[in-house]
Amino acid sequence: MRHYLTQLALIFTLATSWPLAAAPVTLIDDTGRAVHLAAPARRIVSLAPHVTENLYAAGAGAALVGAVDYSDYPPAAQRLPRVGGYTRLDLEAILRLKPDLVIGWESGNPPAMLDKLRRLGIPVFLTQPNSIDAVADELEQFGRLAGTEQAARAAAEAFRQRLAQLRANYGQRPKVRVFYQIWKEPLMTVGRPQIITSAITLCGGENIYGELDQMAPTVSLESVLAANPEAIVATGMGDARPEWLDDWKRWPRLLAQQRGNLFHINPDIMQRHTPRILDGTEALCRALESARQRRP
């Protein structure tokens, strides 16, 4: 009997320690397309900087084998082989990396190039997180695709908790009408589908162009002056305050200028669909709170 029990114990130990075959993964991407993987991806190429960052946040950095230019966060991403820019992909560079999954950006990557990858038999998963809440969903999706569900769920939960706190702190504050400027010539802003509009709303703001259907519409100087926003927020390039933010000082009747409500936020924490957008959103909320405090 003792020998029999010993054999049972050995069989149980082997059965519980032997690695199980990885289960297939099927997931619907943000375009409604079903993406099928025979097993969680082990060689992923990222076609957008925010995708790269979110893969690391979801615990899947070890599976990344290539990324596009400007994939610079976290620092480990800077060492990845490059496959061109997100609008000018290098097909040969992608193929050399032998990916078992490519993760792209619906509104940023050329559709023709994505179709070529699919025709070559490479699974392509497309993302388009147009709201802040969608960032947490994307983290969980990436965890499923790469088999890092536990780390991804933890990151998503931390994101949702911080987001809920920001909404509790600022969501019911008095409205501030905002012009969000992303470029000078042409004069460009953000429309309804852009994730930044949801950040403005979260902070108790109102995007003066929030009814436009374009992601990044071009607008006229005259229309901004006519709308007379209470605050102007600019991003530009990098952490340096863009010189053209001060161009609004030429319009003394502009309410944002009169009250000193010309604000700058680093685009890396405001315009990327990643957990760091909550850093940018918090900075935006503080700016709009400053605008409220400057009211007569």
Q: SS-based structural class?
A: alpha/beta
User: What is the name of the CATH topology of the largest domain?
Assistant: Rossmann fold
Total domain count: 2
List the helices and strands in order. Answer: HEEEHEEEHEHEHHEHEHEHEH
Main attributes?
2 domains, 12 strands, alpha/beta, Rossmann fold, four-stranded parallel β-sheet
Explain how this protein is built.
The chain has 10 helices and 12 strands. The protein folds into 2 domains: 19-156, Rossmann fold (3-Layer(aba) Sandwich), CATH 3.40.50.1980; 172-293, Nitrogenase molybdenum iron protein domain (Rossmann fold). β5 (84-85) and β6 form a beta hairpin. A 4-stranded parallel β-sheet has the order 4-3-7-8, with helices on both faces. The chain has helices at 2-17, 49-57, 91-96, 111-119, 133-146, 149-170, 195-202, 221-227, 255-258, 277-293, and strands at residues 25-28, 34-37, 44-46, 64-67, 84-85, 88-89, 101-105, 124-127, 176-181, 205-207, 231-234, 262-264. The radius of gyration is 23 Å and the shape is elongated.
